[in-house]
Amino acid sequence: MPYKLGDIAEHLNAELRGDPECLISELSTLAEATPSCLSFLSNRRYIKQLESTQAAAVILDNKNANKCPAHALVVDNPYLGYALAAQLLYPLTDIKPGIHSTSSIAETARIDANSQINAHAVVQEGAVIGTGVFIASGCVIGSNVVIGDNTRLLENTVVCHHVVIGKNVLIHPGVVIGADGFGLAEQNDGSWIKIPQIGSVIVEDDVEIGANTTIDRGALGDTYIGRGVKIDNQVQIGHNVTIGEFTAIAGCTGIAGSSRLGKRCRIGGGCGISGHLEITDDVILTGMSAVNNSIIQSGIYSSPLSATDNKTWRKNVARFHRLDESFKKIRDEISEIKNG
């Protein structure tokens, strides 16, 4: 539904420079906006688009407000302002309490009457589902799972037995929480023996988990996802991993078992974190970083090599393999010079 610009300004705690009665019906980019749209400027690369935008209003900072040809909502952090405006204009779908006739609900499951369970969902024995929970079609909730109030599980999510999920959690399609961790013991003949994974997964409040992400259950203790953690699509979190509150993890990252990430970390896409490591609070890993040692000091860390043409890469690899030999030769030559 349309909102008055004055109401949006109040929601954003923004300074309004323009008509508070102007009606806004949707959000759009600066380049594609129409006269009913609200847009935003948070990256100076798009200042030229600001000059020609057809948006009715723009969220931006004070530095760029005088360049705005439309009504302006002036805030310190335009990207945050955009996020708040998006929540206002595009609220989550309201819960429609009830259980679809095609779902399968165990007699011992406890489901609050104000929750919604859609078609072909399965809720197994002893599961407890709080109030305002939304469970989409095709979800499977294992035995003795606990799901907190106002949590939303989208299509084909699987939550395995004894997992605990907090309040206000958003889980996107295809997520699997609580599958067995990769626990194996090698025998003398090289074959493998499976180690039963008897821990669980605890997901605290206000977490978001992206599509097709997998979070393994603990081998003995629990895998733990702290409050406010945000996880992108196709992330693999191994058994007994701990992730501190408000950490954000971008897509295709893999975290091996028993590693512990601190609070407020930022993990770029495609990172690989080895097992049994400690990463302290407020660490930023840039995309494709490989972490093989613990990080005990906050800061920004990077490790990947940039891509280059194959011919140069092959030469560099060959030289890398001769690096130890070259170092020893140089060391011996320096030693001979010093000894005269």
Automatic annotation (TrEMBL):
Pfam families: Hexapep (PF00132), LpxD (PF04613). The keyword Transport does not apply. GO terms for cellular component: membrane. The keyword Acyltransferase applies. The active site is at H239 (proton acceptor). Keywords: Acyltransferase, Lipid A biosynthesis, Lipid biosynthesis, Lipid metabolism, Repeat, Transferase. Pathway: Bacterial outer membrane biogenesis; LPS lipid A biosynthesis. One of its GO terms (biological process) is lipid A biosynthetic process. Its EC number is 2.3.1.191. It comes from the Bacteria. NCBIfam families: lipid_A_lpxD, PRK00892.1. This is UDP-3-O-acylglucosamine N-acyltransferase. The lineage of its organism: Bacteria, Pseudomonadati, Pseudomonadota, Gammaproteobacteria, Methylohalomonadales.
